[in-house]
Specification:
Order of helices and strands: EHEHEHEHEHEHEHEEHEEEEEEHEE
Shape: globular
GO biological process, one term: D-serine catabolic process
CATH architecture of the largest domain: Alpha-Beta Barrel
InterPro entries: Ala_racemase_N, D-amino_acid_metab_enzyme, D-ser_dehydrat-like_dom, D-ser_dehydrat-like_sf, PLP-binding_barrel
Pfam families: Ala_racemase_N, D-ser_dehydrat
Protein name: Putative amino acid aldolase or racemase
Number of domains: 2
Distance between the termini: 35 Å
Number of helices: 9
GO molecular function, one term: D-serine ammonia-lyase activity
Length: 368
């Protein structure tokens, strides 16, 4: 099958670019003596997670418990759930996940005493122990306990609570992944976490509370932490990349980030051409998310995309543009790979204009 046989809008991945991205990140992280634990919220597809594991990844991350259930059902046994959970429904589901896959290694992130006591209660009743990572504040001011006495208190509470065990710390500075300029991005990322490692050395280690695992980092910042002590990197978007990551700059100082290639794309059709300067495609907000800005028309700097609502994308053409044909196909580069992918049920793998394979996006919508 060729691209011409696909209806639109369709979500595509350039397999050559994706494969190169996968190999490059694994090699770069391994060369630093750190483990790669890719964040699968970027793709939500067990087969792609398996591919990452086959290349040497330590395990995977999922953002939500629902995603972890999907990945575990597919046979993936080492999963870090990076978002805290709350209320008995979630605690019981987490325990059920452990019971359903007793050979699995599932670790849950927490940042509050209620998480620890709640998980511990249900785990103890089920006769199991759930490993926990404590998320610490690392600049984003989202989840995360303050580094200092509050962190010590949570570690000691885990150690005193049946049904849970202390595995380590999560320090993820998501707000810094898209800082423009390589040197500035790396400097800010390092500054955001250096105090955490100083506290580990000055306080936790003498108290025999040092973490076995320190997990964090991302596609934009994985190179910022040499010598600090991260044991694993949680990069996820590198598998696909997107227009937002494309615009953060590379180490040579250029505005375009070419560390990895844009592999995720959306195939769309021109459905209207009301004026010489304006055309319309069938890819609107429901299939091209705009939370990170507008997507780009691949290899067409003479065309600017603007969202036209749920179902429409407006194309603004340069003054000297010859115009587009009704029915003409165009390739879009999403601005944000995670939120764009979550709008589709199927991902098609392509090489050139050939459609090689496809995957069901099994974790789509599993934000539970």
């Amino acid at each position: 099958m060729t691209l011409d046989n696909l209806d639109t809008p369709a979500l595509l991945v350039d397999l050559d670019a994706m494969d190169a991205n996968l190999v490059a990140m694994q090699q770069r992280v391994s060369a630093k003596g750190v483990k790669l634990r890719p964040h699968t919220k970027a793709h939500k597809i067990p087969a792609l997670a398996m591919k990452q594991l086959s290349l040497g990844a330590e395990g995977i991350c999922t953002a939500k418990l629902g995603e972890a259930e999907v990945m575990a059902e597919a046979g993936i046994e080492d999963i870090l759930i990076t978002t805290p959970i709350a209320n008995p429904i979630k605690y019981q589901r987490l325990v059920a996940l452990h019971l359903a896959y007793p050979e699995g290694k599932f670790c849950q992130v927490v940042d509050h005493a209620d998480h620890i006591l709640g998980i511990g209660k249900y785990a103890m009743d089920a006769g199991i122990t759930v490993e926990l990572l404590i998320e610490v504040e690392s600049g984003q001011q989202r989840c995360g306990v303050a580094v200092g006495e509050p962190l010590v208190t949570l570690i000691e509470l885990i150690q005193a609570t049946d049904g849970v065990s202390y595995r380590g710390i999560q320090a993820y500075s998501g707000h810094l992944q898209h800082v423009k300029g390589f040197n500035e991005r790396q400097a800010q990322a390092r500054t955001a976490v250096v105090g955490i490692f100083e506290f580990i050395d000055s306080h936790l280690r003498p108290m025999n509370l040092a973490p076995d695992v320190i997990s964090g980092g991302g596609t934009g910042t994985y190179e910022a932490y040499d010598g600090l002590g991260f044991t694993e990197i949680q990069a996820g978007s590198y598998i696909f990349m997107d227009a937002a990551y494309r615009g953060i700059g590379n180490r040579e100082g250029r505005a375009i980030n070419d560390e990895f290639s844009n592999a995720l794309k959306v195939w769309t059709t021109v459905i209207s051409h009301p004026t010489k300067e304006r055309a319309v495609v069938d890819a609107g907000m429901k299939c091209l998310s705009i939370d990170m800005g507008m997507p780009l028309v691949e290899d067409r700097e003479d065309i600017r995309y603007q969202t036209g609502g749920d179902e429409h994308g407006i194309l603004h053409l340069a003054d000297n543009h010859a115009g587009l044909a009704i029915g003409q196909r165009l390739m879009m580069l999403p601005s944000h790979c995670d939120t764009t992918l979550n709008s589709y049920s199927t991902l098609y793998g392509i090489r050139g204009d050939r459609v090689i394979n496809s995957w069901d996006i099994a974790g789509r919508g599993r934000s539970d």
